[in-house]
Amino acid sequence: MDSSRTPDRAADRSALQLAGLLAVAGAAHFAVPKPFDAIVPRVLPGRPRTWTHLSGAAELAVAAALAVPRTRRAGGWLAAGLFLAVLPANVQMAADWQRRSPALRAAAWARVPLQVPLVVRSLRAARGATGANTCPEPR
């Protein structure tokens, strides 16, 4: 058997955990949108609620792509891009929370570097995907 196609249960589990995280976060954008509206960077055009809904829909779509083995490689790449794309919102939140309690300020700033392991995990999910899909593996 080709070892590059051997199922990796740990990679599958990791991808499904990422999918779960993104699904919960995406659903929260619709169920409780106000906190997400508040961290939309003010430089973006349009209404914050529009960006909240767009980012929630993107998280749900990427979660679905990660959950399905056939689209997992593309889902991993998309997840990495999504985690990088929401980084400005995390920075906006940290900047806005400078007058909050020290614990909340620390939590807000802690979210910023936490994007790094999420991106790394997403890329691992893309590289560990065993299903057929159209996204080429990087060289």
- Average the pLDDT over all residues and give the rounded result: 88
Number of domains: 1
Strand content: under 5%
| Amino-to-carboxy terminus distance | 23 Å
Overall shape: it is: globular
List segments where confidence is low: pLDDT < 50 over at least 5 consecutive residues.
none
What quaternary form is this?
Answer: single chain
Radius of gyration: 17 Å
SSE run? HHHHHHH
Helical coverage, percent range: 55-70%
Q: Please summarize the sheet with the most strands.
A: none
Number of strands: 0
Short characterization:
This protein is mainly α.
Structural features:
139 residues; 69% helix; mainly alpha
Note down, in words, how this protein is organized:
There is one protein chain. The protein has helices at residues 9-31, 34-38, 48-67, 72-85, 87-96, 102-111, 115-128. The protein is mainly α. It has one domain (8-128). α1 (9-31) packs antiparallel against α3 and α3 packs antiparallel against α4 (72-85). The model has no long low-confidence stretch (mean pLDDT 88). This is DoxX family protein.
